[in-house]
Design brief:
alpha+beta; 16 strands; disordered N terminus; 6-stranded mixed β-sheet; disordered C terminus
């Protein structure tokens, strides 16, 4: 019993050192405690080899450990002050693109990182970061209560949504509230911070029907288009569709007999980047469109995101619609990794959309719900639909509340001749929760 009691003294030093670590803040807490943990492991090994040392020796060991841990923790904190200052600036203000990533240089600017803190093709290859000014110290949790809502008792669940607003909301979601690890911070830095996406607030009663479909063009030659046409109804035609592996959207529209009702936008960067958006021209008009590098496939090269900013001809509501084909291997996030890919996608959305836009991001992300790419996209947008193929790599995100999403988490459309299923979702852009009567 005396031996057991004597062993507890050194662990008091470990606890004190951990408390010192906590002054580093949540972001650096893991780094500091990792060092302390290593010292504690050495202590445990020493005690195991000398099971019944005298009280004096253990007390001496405790004092020595406290000195070591205090110095170690302070050293870590000092490093944080030096390197963390740079990292926090990069996190709060940084912008990585393909050029800057390869070259390792830094350029300073005055643009808000929330709007332009993006990763692009130039930054990725060159390694530079362009710094701007943005708000700091924000987490995805809106509640004043410390902690987050978890469904696995290991880390925080979905990000900035109802379940994370506090313990009561978490309980309503059948989750557990506590100080769990926050996946929204994983990998940042070295990846830039996740830009904030403004939540949509409806102004007019308007329903939007969305489709995403990986066509597997090399196999089907666009032959999956008639299936997509047959899956929609005359009563509720698709408003906007995003296609991946879409080599010729005009052939796609011809095969689906949509030439008169839809306009197409095509983005091609070599053989491996073929993206299309088709929008219903009787109800939507194109305001702007574009594309940007989003990640790097380990085998097939650069991956892009394309977008179209559309205005409803009747209500004048604006929809920012983005389409992405993600990098391989599955769930890797490509060469930059999941956090960087998520940051790049969100950065381009924030940069090219405008305040008040309804935002929808669709695609074959080559990442399922357990990947860091998808989990970090969930930190800023609602994950409103996912498919079945390859464990759910086809996904739809929106800045619209879940209460405005029909058909649960989307509907997979089975039976096409692609190796993916089409995925559709209905979105209600009305000002308040509705009964989806427009469907």
């Amino acid at each position: 019993a005396a031996c057991s009691s004597s062993k507890q003294a050194p662990w008091a030093a470990v606890g004190s050192a951990n408390a010192l670590c906590s002054t580093a803040g949540n972001f650096f807490l893991g780094r500091c405690r990792e060092v302390v943990g290593n010292e504690a492991d050495l202590l445990e090994a020493n005690i195991a080899n000398n099971t019944c040392q005298s009280q004096d020796k253990v007390a001496t060991a405790s004092r020595q450990l406290w000195k070591v841990l205090s110095i170690t923790a302070l050293a870590v904190l000092a490093g944080i002050v030096h390197f963390g200052r740079r990292d926090v600036v990069a996190e709060e203000q940084g912008m990585i693109n393909e050029d800057t990533f390869q070259n390792g240089t830094s350029q300073n600017g005055t643009t808000r990182a929330e709007e332009q803190g993006v990763i692009n093709e130039d930054a990725f290859h060159n390694g530079t970061s362009q710094h701007g000014t943005t708000e700091s110290g924000k987490t995805q949790n809106k509640s004043q209560a410390i902690g987050c809502c978890s469904w696995n008792s290991e880390d925080c669940g979905h990000g900035d949504n109802f379940c994370q607003e506090g313990p009561h909301h978490c309980q309503t979601c059948n989750g557990t509230w506590g100080n769990f690890s926050d996946p929204c911070t994983w990998g940042h830095p070295p990846a830039p911070p996740l830009p904030k996406i403004e939540n949509y607030v409806g102004k007019m009663k308007l329903g939007v029907k969305i489709l995403t479909y990986h066509l597997e063009w090399r196999k089907t030659g666009g032959g999956a288009a008639p299936f997509a046409r047959e899956s929609t109804s005359k009563k509720i035609p698709y408003d906007v569709m995003g296609f991946q592996e879409c080599k010729n959207p005009w052939e796609l529209l011809r095969q689906a007999d949509w030439q008169d009702d839809y306009q197409a936008i095509h983005v091609a960067h070599g053989r491996n980047v073929q993206l299309c958006i088709a929008y219903r021209n009787t109800t939507w008009e194109l305001l702007s469109s574009g594309d940007a590098w989003a990640s790097q496939d380990q085998k097939y090269g650069s991956r892009y995101m394309m977008w179209a900013r559309l205005r409803n001809t009747k209500t004048k509501e604006i929809l920012f619609f983005a389409n992405h084909h993600g990098p391989l291997p599955l769930n890797s996030g490509g060469v930059p990794g999941g956090p960087a890919t998520a940051s790049a996608l969100l950065g381009q959305v924030a940069k090219n959309s405008e305040s008040g836009d309804a935002i929808i991001l669709v695609g074959d992300f080559n990442a399922d719900g357990g990947s860091l790419t998808i989990r970090q996209l969930e930190c800023r947008m609602n994950h409103v639909a996912w498919g079945d193929k390859y464990n759910g790599v086809d996904n739809i995100f929106a800045n619209v509340a879940f209460s405005h999403i029909s058909r649960g988490h989307g509907k997979s459309l089975y039976g096409g001749n692609s190796d993916h299923d089409a995925l559709e979702v209905f979105v209600d852009l009305s000002p308040k929760d509705s009964d989806m009567a427009f469907l």
